[in-house]
Automatic annotation (TrEMBL):
<dbReference type="GO" id="GO:0016645">
    <property type="term" value="F:oxidoreductase activity, acting on the CH-NH group of donors"/>
</dbReference>
<feature type="domain" description="MnmC-like methyltransferase">
    <location>
        <begin position="104"/>
        <end position="220"/>
    </location>
</feature>
<dbReference type="Pfam" id="PF05430">
    <property type="entry name" value="Methyltransf_30"/>
</dbReference>
<protein>
    <recommendedName>
        <fullName>MnmC-like methyltransferase domain-containing protein</fullName>
    </recommendedName>
</protein>
<dbReference type="GO" id="GO:0004808">
    <property type="term" value="F:tRNA (5-methylaminomethyl-2-thiouridylate)(34)-methyltransferase activity"/>
</dbReference>
<dbReference type="InterPro" id="IPR047785">
    <property type="entry name" value="tRNA_MNMC2"/>
</dbReference>
<dbReference type="InterPro" id="IPR008471">
    <property type="entry name" value="MnmC-like_methylTransf"/>
</dbReference>
<dbReference type="InterPro" id="IPR029063">
    <property type="entry name" value="SAM-dependent_MTases_sf"/>
</dbReference>
Length: 229
C-alpha cells in the first residue's frame, strides 16, 4: 500500500495514485460515481438481462463492484472478463471500500478471500450463483479476446499520454471483434486520437456529457443494418 498515495474523491470514495503512471485509478470527481455513471450506465449494462463485460484494467475492482451490485440486485447472471497487467495485492483491494449492498459485499468478501497472494497465475477465476469473473493478468496488447462476446466494453487504462499501449489501433480492433453487434464501449478519454482510432476500428463514436468532466465517450458496434443514433 505504501507505494500508492490515497486520494479522497468528491463522492467520498477513495482511489489511489499509481506511483509509476502518476495518475489516479478513478476520477477525482468520484470513483464510485464514475464506475456507475460512465461504465455501468452509459453502456446500459444496468439494464441488460445477461451482461457480459470486457474490461481493460481491473485496477481496484471498482467498476467490477458497481456492475456486480447491479447484477445481484436485478438477479441477472453476470460474466465479467478483465485484463490487468499490474495487479494489486489483497490489502490494497481491501482498503478501497465502496458502498456495496450486503449481498454484493458478501461476494466481494469471497473474492478477497480467494485473491492470490502473488497474483501472477493467470487467469484468476471466481464464480458463484451471481455469475463468473475471469481476470487475465496479462498485457492487453497480447490479449486474445473472445469474438462476438461482449455486451459492454469498459475501456479503462490510464490515460493515453502515460499508458498509450492499451489505446493502440491494434487493441481497439480486437475490442471491436470482441463486441457483440449493438454493444456499447465507454471510456473517460475523449482525446482526438482515441476517437479516430475507435472509428477506424469500426465503432460509431459519440461524445456525451460527463459528470465532473465536460465529456465522456461512448462507442457502439452497430448492429447490421442499424444506423447509430
Ligand atoms: C485507471 S486504472 C483501472 C481502474 C479500474 N477499472 C477500477 O475499476 O478500479 C487502469 C488499469 O489498467 C492497467 N493496465 C495498464 N496497462 C495495461 C496493459 N497493457 N494491459 C493490462 N492492464 C493494463 C493498470 O495496471 C491499471 O490497473
Amino acid at each position: 500500500m505504501d507505494e500508492f498515495s490515497p486520494l479522497q474523491t468528491e463522492d467520498g470514495s477513495l482511489t489511489l495514485i499509481h506511483p509509476r503512471f502518476n495518475e489516479a485509478y478513478s476520477s477525482r470527481h468520484g470513483a464510485w460515481m464514475q464506475a456507475n455513471a460512465l461504465y455501468l450506465n452509459l453502456t446500459q449494462t444496468h439494464l441488460h438481462p445477461s451482461p457480459r463485460v470486457l474490461e481493460i484494467g481491473f485496477g481496484l475492482g471498482v467498476n467490477f463492484r458497481a456492475t456486480l451490485a447491479s447484477a445481484v440486485e436485478r438477479r441477472v447472471w453476470l460474466e465479467y472478463l478483465s485484463y490487468e497487467l499490474f495487479p494489486v495485492s489483497r490489502d490494497v483491494l481491501e482498503a478501497i471500500r465502496v458502498p456495496l449492498p450486503g449481498e454484493a459485499e458478501a461476494v466481494w468478501r469471497g473474492l478477497l478471500a480467494t485473491w492470490p497472494d502473488v497474483p501472477t497465475v493467470t487467469p484468476y477465476l471466481f464464480q458463484g450463483d451471481w455469475g463468473r469473473l475471469e481476470i487475465r493478468f496479462e498485457d492487453v496488447t497480447r490479449g486474445d479476446f473472445p469474438n462476438d462476446w461482449a455486451t459492454a466494453i469498459y475501456l479503462d487504462p490510464f490515460s493515453p499520454q502515460v499508458n498509450p499501449e492499451p489505446w493502440s489501433l491494434q487493441v481497439l480492433h480486437k475490442l471491436y471483434q470482441a463486441a457483440l453487434p449493438g454493444a456499447f464501449l465507454a471510456t473517460y478519454s475523449v482525446a482526438g486520437t482515441v476517437r479516430r482510432r475507435l472509428t477506424q476500428a469500426g465503432f460509431a463514436v459519440q461524445r456525451v456529457a460527463g459528470v465532473g468532466k465536460r465529456q465522456w465517450l461512448r462507442a457502439v458496434r452497430s448492429a447490421p443494418g442499424v444506423l447509430p443514433g
